[in-house]
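User: Fold this; tokens only.

Assistant: Input:
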Amino acid sequence: MQERQAKQQLDISLEADPLFMGHRPALISYSARILGSRDAAEDIVQEAYLRFGIGTLPTQTARQGLAYLYRIVRNLSL
């Protein structure tokens, strides 16, 4: 059961990969400004990537997806 869920999450998150990887450094900097720690920010951004992959719908535009990704990072950083 867990194996199937992990595979499904991976399949979904691969769709989000180009958007995430293109903005990863900026997301880490954004989170680091909030947290005051770059190491913690990297962990937050990784968690945001996992959540983003699960919640992203194929119909979303890149702009909507990026705004959603920043919101996840901000919420996890607070």
